[in-house]
Write a structure and sequence with these properties.
There is one protein chain. The chain has 7 domains: 3-169, no CATH class; 202-323, no CATH class; 345-560, Ubiquitin Conjugating Enzyme (Roll), CATH 3.10.110; 602-807, P-loop containing nucleotide triphosphate hydrolases (Rossmann fold, 3-Layer(aba) Sandwich), CATH 3.40.50.300; 814-1044, Rossmann fold (3-Layer(aba) Sandwich); 1086-1265, Four Helix Bundle (Hemerythrin (Met), subunit A) (Up-down Bundle), CATH 1.20.120; 1266-1422, no CATH class. Helix content is 43%, strand content 13%. α8 runs parallel beside α51. It is elongated and about 130 Å long. The protein starts with a helix and ends with a helix. GO terms for molecular function: ATP binding; helicase activity; hydrolase activity; RNA binding.
Length: 1425
């Protein structure tokens, strides 16, 4: 290490030893002199670090080894970091030939010590192992380093053959070998390039066919022996290649650099994690220079970057393409597909632009100027040079002639020019050549390279036709050197033209060419040795404005960089984007403030007077109060109010029908009104479902004689009926969670009531963690927990032993009829033909159990026929028998109602919307066969408030009300007049299925059956018909498992992170039933895979922050956001709904072949999910055209589609659309265009579907949600048959195609996939939705994805800067591509994050209009060419 380097304290960061030659001799002092500390530290005795150790320390052993090997004394560079001290050991060896010292550095990664001395000894142990691992030195080391040596031995044993060079005894030999091999590879690539250029000249109209074939460029050399490197190169050459032609690269770089305007310094400091100004690294500088980069560019890159990877990214992005080393991008690399038919005019324009761009200007700029001047090539040349010479658009005063001169005649002009040409010819002799009547070429003394036979640079002098030189306009000076990068040529031309204009002023009509040529020869080498700044080059491209810098370099960039696609003068963008998404956010953590409650305020007095007036004179109000007084809860009013006043937390446990949900909030509000502090009351009561929040709010508003939205209101997603005067707000749990996100201390809220806490949803458990923490900060906040069935001791213990108040309920006796009794009463004959539910196979144990059950049934009086029917139904117990529902309703209708009473309403519990629809269909058919009118209506959370309200309306006399509901009717919602309940015993729970969170149908709990039974005894004795056997009821779980223990925690962890919590594990450990640490860590890893969480910082990405706002599976949330951003929303909505529900296709066992043939008619874009969308879209268009139910049913039967599933997809699609609208991810015109429709028939608007026909883009969006579920396809080797006309390639046999996933190895497409018989794959990658292992591992719902879909929407892209290619995610997917392409892709992804980050602070921002989005769409659509 040189002394200068030691002073700077800069240490090599790479773990591998990196050689470098230093001009100065390495430090000959003690190793401690190289330590860089905030304060000097004296060496501590060994015994203080290694107690009891009397042997040598690792540092002493390292010194002895260096002395024995004849090396320089080792130096130790110790640095302090926030995590502790870390040491870099630098070894040196003098090269006897050159006299210089070669160095190798070793840094023990991720091993931080509390003191500098410890770090030094452990660093010495690591370096000693690297050069002495073939010896067993473990026993001569002290205890701590001894353990480290053992650990390093284990790592060496696991190292592959490509890493064995790291453990050579002489690190300097291994380094020299690596560098020599790298140089040989580079020279070989240059030679191959030259041979290819000589042998196959490229024609202007040559068509290059793009294939995923062998490599066309030099592979990166592996750090190992040559044979191993050759094998690695062969492996990479077999991989598919990603292309991006010059035009596309130009467009991408133009967008990237424009979005980076003004953020270059900050962006790279933030992006690469540097602290302060990076320090110059001599070894890294030499390494980059050896790769072929210019010294000036390397030095500039190291102003912003600390490590090799980030420096190479920086250089790939900023160095112009024609100046990049060959391994980063070949100069002739431009894959294209020619499809243009030229006219004579267009062909002339193309050749003119090629001649102009040969000067050094970009084709885009030349085309713009050529069109600007009306297609005149001579005028275009003059305009280009004028803009180059005067980037600000104004000619400096020292370049303006005071007197305008004109020639006396054309003859005089010609004579003066001829005289000058003769003089130049005599001066430059054979270096001068005439080029037409108005031009010449001169070979300059300066050469391109400082070598003996290097060619001389040629200068062309061209006098435009319209020029009056030497009187006014100077000639044009052009550098003709194709091997000189265009930006350097234009830099020379720019300065030359500026000097020429000044010379014209001084010459006063005299010749100037000789003066200019001599000036060029004097200054050319300096310009070549000091190229223009790359940052200025980039900034000039995007921010050339007359009001900015006076330096002419600004516009040079716009003319030189091959990516400028707009006018030369582009104003600086005002919006600065942070590419790592780390824009400053406001801290939403506020200090908790106590409520300032003052009695007898004007508002409180007015509320008290109004309340007293209602009690005294309002008859209807008095009647309502009398009805309230009959509820069991009324008798506990005073006790409840006192308990709430005296305690922070109170638990209310009340039986169904006691009135706790509607009355407890009113008791508290009334007490505050009577205490004359009513205006300060701010009570928030949560309900688990939207329908409950609306229903309870409206009921309470009626009881208080007020309109909804005034004193009493409600808030659900997408609808808020409250005002400033609202004292009692009913809302869903999610609404309160979002409020806590923006207002963590719930300022001005006095009471929080959480109803139905027994359900133990993830949201309610999450809410309880937050509220428990909050009440410890806000002593004035009151929390009331309510439920009908609650483990009061468990909840009380969680809240520090808070009091529990139990309110008994009153219900009439309810008779229970189980399935076997219903079958006996009705004579029902089960028919399960065509059922999709598999019949349970009877085992020997089950047969024995059945015999016992059969005997019990016989003892109860059931005959043999009934018992046989019950056995059949037991085998299909998981299938809902809708005919049994009809039989139960028929039995109810035959019962005699008590005299003087209305017909009792029937409440039927079904697990989901689709089952409700099937049940209603069956009942509708039955209703035509009975004399009584049946009013059948659904009840579920997806209904509109208006549809929900119809449930509670009374029916006219003689009409029987039948409500078919989900478990939403178990609690909170009370339907008057219910006497009969039909319980299917089924419920849909959120569970993990097929690697995705889904609603899965399962058996309900015993507690839920009690709740359902209780609904039948509210007004008079009732009956519950249970569609499951008594035996099955004994198997039901006592309580539903907490949702936090049965589902993946990705959504919860995302929400916790969105709340600002750093330690997710610690936060969730405070839950009622904490999840396992493994489940949490798995969830965090999934968030990283989905790009919702930054693995390095642990912070949410901008995408993750938006995903946190969508209450759906994270994969679906990601797809929905991207579907909206990239304007292909409608197909993405349908696909997301299909993933959440199931495929609409049916496959009956007896007609499987016919069903698959029908499915293939909808096959779309080699995607099973798009095929499902196509089937839905066809059905939806038929429905939109006015087709009746019978026609739709016929269509579905003919094409083997499930009508119920299609309707369920439609319903869920609308819900997803509403969610996107609520968070600002749909166009503003969407509401006006779609609100006029019925809710179930709404569509996304036209603006959001501009790209919905772009199947490549839609498949990329599918990939964004399904990644990392990626399949690699390995095609068999091509086989040929000999024919008379020659060899003909055989068609690929489908069975020979092999497919692999990262975790499972070989997998197989399920026979139901439309790709099952496919034998051609344009891209060798699929994504899949789910997999199932039977005899083999089958994948379902596969989609072939575009290459750029993988790059832009898959995992993180890791760039191999030295030429092999790109790796996606964890390396399972490898692609061949030049480094520049990988860097551009990464920058686009970061810029998309930046735009999404901007939308967080500005929700009205239209992300879809961003140039970044448009460019990504184009890349995916065109595959880069």
């Amino acid at each position: 290490m040189s002394k200068n380097t030691a002073k700077k304290g800069k240490a090599a960061a790479a773990p591998e030893s990196t050689p470098a030659k230093a001009g100065a001799k390495g430090s000959s002092g003690k190793g401690s002199k190289g330590i860089v500390l905030d304060a000097p530290a004296a060496p501590e005795p060994a015994r203080s670090i290694f107690p009891g150790w009397t042997g040598k320390t690792p540092s002493s052993l390292m010194h002895e080894h260096c002395q024995k090997m004849g090396w320089e004394k080792p130096t130790f560079d110790v640095k302090r970091t926030p995590r502790g001290f870390v040491s870099t050991v630098v070894l040196g060896k003098r090269n006897k030939k050159t006299g210089q010292i070669e160095t190798a550095s070793f840094t023990l990664q991720d091993n931080f010590k509390p003191t500098a001395v410890e770090a030094r000894h452990y660093g010495a142990t690591y370096a000693l192992h690297r050069v002495n691992s073939h010896k067993s030195l473990m026993m001569v080391l002290p205890p701590g380093p001894r353990d480290l040596w053992s650990q390093l031995d284990g790592e060496k044993a696991k190292a592959g053959s490509s890493e064995q060079h790291l453990y050579l005894a002489d690190p300097f030999i291994s380094q020299a070998a690596k560098l020599q091999h790298q140089q040989q590879q580079h020279q070989q690539a240059l030679q191959e390039k030259a041979r290819a250029r000589a042998a196959t000249p490229t024609k202007d109209n040559q068509e290059v066919t793009v294939q995923h074939g062998p490599s066309e460029y030099a592979s990166r050399s592996a750090f190992g022996d040559q044979s191993n490197d050759s094998q690695i190169k062969k492996n990479w050459d077999k991989l598919p290649m990603v292309h991006m032609n010059q035009e596309m690269r130009a467009e991408v770089e133009d967008v990237v650099k424009k979005q980076m305007a003004g953020e270059l310094y900050q962006m790279y400091v933030e992006e690469y994690g540097t602290q302060g100004e990076p320090q110059y690294n001599t070894m890294l500088s030499k390494t980059l220079t050896r790769m072929g980069f210019r010294d000036r560019h390397v030095a500039e890159a190291l102003q912003y970057c600390n490590d090799q990877s980030s420096a190479l990214d920086w250089l790939c992005l900023h160095v112009p393409e024609d100046d990049l080393p060959v391994s980063f991008l070949q100069s002739n690399y431009n894959p294209t597909i020619t499809t243009i038919n030229h006219t004579s005019a267009s062909l002339g324009r193309e050749y003119a632009i090629k001649r102009l761009s040969a000067i050094g200007f970009t084709s885009t700029t030349c085309g713009q100027i050529y069109d600007l001047v009306g297609g005149d090539e001579d005028k275009a040349v003059e305009e280009l040079f004028r803009r180059l010479a005067f980037p600000k658009g104004q000619v400096p005063e020292d370049m303006v002639q005071d007197i305008e001169m004109e020639p006396e005649s054309p003859e005089q002009l010609q004579e003066l020019r001829e005289d000058e040409m003769l003089a130049l010819e005599s001066i430059y002799d054979d270096r001068f050549a005439r080029d037409g009547p108005a031009g010449a070429r001169i070979k300059l003394d300066t050469t391109l390279h400082n070598t003996k036979d290097a060619p001389k640079i040629e200068l062309e002098i061209r006098i435009p036709k319209t020029s009056t030189y030497p009187f006014n306009q100077p000639p044009l000076f052009i550098i003709n050197e194709p091997d000189l990068p265009s930006y350097l040529r234009l830099s020379i031309i720019q300065r030359t033209m500026q000097y020429a204009y000044r010379s014209m002023v001084l010459a006063m009509g005299g010749p100037i060419v000789y003066d200019v040529v001599e000036w060029i020869q004097d200054n050319l080498r300096g310009i070549l040795d000091n190229p223009p700044s790359l940052v200025q080059l980039t900034e000039g491209l995007i921010s050339v404005d007359a009001s900015q810098e006076e330096e002419s370099q600004d516009s040079l960039a716009a003319l030189t960089d091959p990516q400028a696609s707009e006018s030369l003068l582009v104003k600086t963008t005002q919006t600065k984007l942070s590419l790592n998404g780390s824009a400053a956010r406001k801290d939403n953590k506020r200090d908790a403030r106590r409520l300032n409650i003052k009695p007898n305020g004007p508002g409180s007095i007015a509320m008290l007077k109004n309340y007293e007036s209602l009690c005294a004179s309002d008859v209807s109000f008095q009647a309502l109060q009398m009805a309230r007084a009959k509820l069991p809860a009324w008798g506990f009013k005073d006790q409840l109010v006192k308990a709430v006043k005296d305690n922070s937390v109170v638990i209310v446990c009340g039986e169904t029908g006691c009135g706790k949900t509607t009355q407890v909030p009113q008791f508290i509000l009334d007490s505050w009104i009577q205490d004359c502090i009513g205006e300060h009351a701010n009570i928030v009561c949560t309900q688990p479902r939207r329908i409950a929040a609306i229903g309870v709010a409206e009921r309470v508003a009626v009881e208080r004689s007020t309109d909804i939205g005034k004193q009493v209101g409600y808030a659900i997603r997408g609808e808020n009926k409250s005002s400033r005067n609202t004292n009692l707000l009913f809302c869903t749990t999610g609404i309160l969670l979002r409020r806590l996100h923006s207002d963590p201390t719930l300022q001005n809220v006095t009471h929080v009531m959480v109803d139905e806490v027994h359900e133990r949803s993830v949201d309610s458990d999450f809410l309880l963690i937050l509220l428990r923490d909050l009440i410890r900060k806000r002593k004035d906040l009151k929390l009331i927990l309510m439920s009908a069935t609650i483990n009061s001791e468990f909840f009380s213990g969680y809240f520090d032993g808070c009091p529990v108040i139990e309110i008994p309920g009153f219900t009439h006796p309810v008779e229970e009829l189980y399935m076997e009794q219903i079958v006996a009463r009705t004579g029902h004959n089960p028919d399960f033909r065509g059922s999709n539910v598999k019949r349970t196979k009877m085992t020997e144990a089950m047969e024995e159990e059945w015999e016992r059950t059969k005997a019990q049934y016989a003892s109860e009086g059931l005959n043999e026929e009934t018992i046989a029917k019950v056995k059949t139904m037991e085998l299909y117990a998981e299938r809902i028998d809708y005919d049994l529902v009809v039989a139960s309703v028929s039995d109810i209708l035959k019962r005699k109602e008590p005299a003087g009473s209305v017909d009792g309403a029937i409440l039927i519990f079904m697990p989901g919307v689709m089952e409700i629809k099937k049940c209603i269909d069956a009942l509708s058919v039955f209703s035509r066969t009975v004399p009584q009118t049946l009013d059948i209506m659904p009840l579920h959370a997806a209904l509109t408030p208006k549809e929900q309200n119809s449930i509670f309306a009374p029916v006219r006399k003689g009409v029987r009300k039948i409500v078919v509901a989900t478990n939403v009717a178990e609690t909170s919602i009370t339907i008057d007049g219910v006497v009969y309940v039909i319980d299917s015993g089924r419920v849909k729970e959120t569970r993990m299925e097929n690697n995705m969170t889904k609603l899965v149908e399962t058996w309900t709990s015993f507690a839920s059956t009690r709740q359902r039974k209780g609904r039948a005894g509210r007004t008079r004795p009732g009956i519950v018909y249970k569609l499951f056997s008594r035996k099955q009821s004994l198997k039901l779980a006592a309580q539903q498992d907490p949702e936090i223990l049965r589902i993946p925690l990705e959504q919860l962890c995302l929400s916790v992170k969105a709340m600002g919590e750093k330690n997710v594990e610690g936060f969730l450990s405070r839950a009622l039933t904490p999840p396992s640490l493994t489940a949490i860590q798995s969830a965090l890893k999934t968030l990283e895979d989905l790009n919702a969480l930054d693995g390095a910082s642990g912070e949410l990405t901008p995408l993750g922050r938006h995903m946190a706002d969508i209450p759906a599976d994270l994969r679906i949330a990601k797809m929905l956001i991207f579907g909206s951003v990239f304007r292909c929303l409608e197909p993405v909505l349908v696909i997301a709904a299909c993933m959440s529900v199931k495929s609409p296709f049916l496959s009956p066992m007896e007609k499987r072949t016919e069903a698959q043939a029908k499915k293939m008619q909808f096959a779309t874009a080699k995607s099973d999910l798009l095929t499902a969308w196509k089937a839905y879209d066809t059905w939806d268009k038929l429905r939109e055209s006015g087709a009746g139910r019978s026609e739709l049913k016929s269509f579905c039967e003919e094409n083997f589609l499930s009508t119920n599933t299609l309707f369920e997809i439609q319903n869920l699609k609308v819900q997803y659309l509403e969610v996107l609208e609520s968070i600002g991810f749909t166009s503003k015109d969407a509401d006006q265009q779609t609100r006029s429709r019925r809710r179930s028939e709404r569509y996304s608007c036209e603006q959001d579907n501009a790209n919905s026909d772009n199947m490549a883009l839609v498949k990329a969006i599918i990939l964004s949600g399904l990644y990392p579920n990626v399949i690699k396809i390995k095609m068999p080797d091509a086989k040929f048959d000999k024919m008379i006309a020659g060899a003909v390639e055989r068609e690929t046999v489908t069975k020979e195609i092999r497919m692999f996933t990262k975790d499972d190895g070989r997998v197989f497409l399920h026979p139901s996939s439309i790709l099952f018989q496919s034998n051609q794959y344009q891209v060798p990658f699929l994504v899949y939705f789910s997999k199932l292992e039977t005899t083999k591992i089958f994948v379902h719902d596969a989609t072939m994805v575009p290459m750029y879909g993988l790059l832009l929407f898959g995992g993180a892209v890791h760039v191999d800067h030295l030429g092999r290619g790109l790796e996606i995610g964890d390396g399972f997917i490898k692609l061949r591509a030049f480094a520049r392409i990988g860097v551009l892709v990464n920058q686009l992804k970061k810029l998309l994050d930046a735009v999404l980050q901007a939308k967080i602070s500005n929700p009205d921002l239209n992300v879809s209009e961003s140039p970044v989005v448009e460019t990504m769409v184009k890349l995916v659509s065109t595959d880069g060419i």
